[in-house]
């Protein structure tokens, strides 16, 4: 697999991805900002915005580990996108309740727009991120072992 990030460095970990870095830093920014939310919001807005913002990078991390299965990888990217959109909605509540100013809202909302765009690009380019299952376990494509492995994998799916 030859996955590289925007600065042309080899991606060895999900933490090397720009989208992971941006989503993690944005979640930390939301955590710090939400410390100033009113106490009565503790079990609703505060918990929900913290949870959804953290879920963007946690779902991305889960998907990264599951990328030998393209469908699972795309599913986790989709989950990350949903959490990013949910975070934007919670940000709208925060600004409309006057818990954050419009400038803070605008900056965070735009960061999540950027995160959503990067996740969408990753979904469209999933093949370039996914490890091919047979290569992952050391089987060369188009070899007799690959055909046998593919047949056994199909049998296991049918049985399970």
Task: Tell me what the structure shows.
With 160 residues, this protein is mainly alpha-helical. It folds into 2 domains: 14-129, Up-down Bundle (de novo design (two linked rop proteins)); 132-160, no CATH class. The chain has helices at residues 18-34, 42-65, 70-96, 102-124, 126-129, 133-136, 144-159. The longest helix has 27 residues, at 70-96. The model is unreliable at 146-160 (pLDDT under 50).
- Strand content is under 5%
Q: Looking at this structure, what is the CATH superfamily of the largest domain?
A: 23S rRNA-intervening sequence
Task: Fill in the CATH topology of the largest domain.
Answer: de novo design (two linked rop proteins)
**What is the average per-residue confidence, as pLDDT, rounded to a whole number?**
84
Estimate percent helicity. over 70%
**How do the helices and strands follow one another from N- to C-terminus?**
HHHHHHH
Question: Which keywords apply here?
Answer:
single chain, 160 residues, mainly alpha, de novo design (two linked rop proteins), 7 helices, 72% helix, elongated
Structure, briefly:
The protein has 7 helices and no strands.
How is this fold's topology laid out?
Layout: H1 18-34, H2 42-65, H3 70-96, H4 102-124, H5 126-129, H6 133-136, H7 144-159
Helix pairs in contact: 1-2, 1-4, 2-3, 3-4
């Amino acid at each position: 697999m030859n996955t590289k990030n925007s600065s042309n460095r080899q991606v060895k970990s999900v933490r090397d991805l720009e989208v992971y870095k941006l989503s993690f830093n944005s979640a930390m920014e939301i955590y710090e900002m939400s410390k100033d939310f009113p106490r009565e919001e503790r079990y609703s807005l505060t918990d929900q915005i913290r949870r959804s913002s953290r879920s963007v990078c946690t779902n991305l991390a889960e998907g990264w580990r599951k990328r030998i299965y393209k469908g699972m990888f795309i599913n986790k990217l989709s989950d990350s996108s949903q959490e990013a959109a949910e975070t934007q909605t919670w940000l709208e509540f925060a600004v409309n309740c006057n818990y954050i100013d419009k400038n803070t809202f605008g900056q965070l909302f735009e960061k999540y727009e950027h995160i959503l765009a990067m996740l969408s690009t990753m979904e469209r380019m999933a093949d370039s991120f996914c490890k091919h299952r047979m290569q992952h376990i050391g089987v060369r494509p188009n070899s007799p072992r690959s055909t046998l492995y593919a047949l056994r994998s199909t049998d296991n799916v049918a049985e399970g």
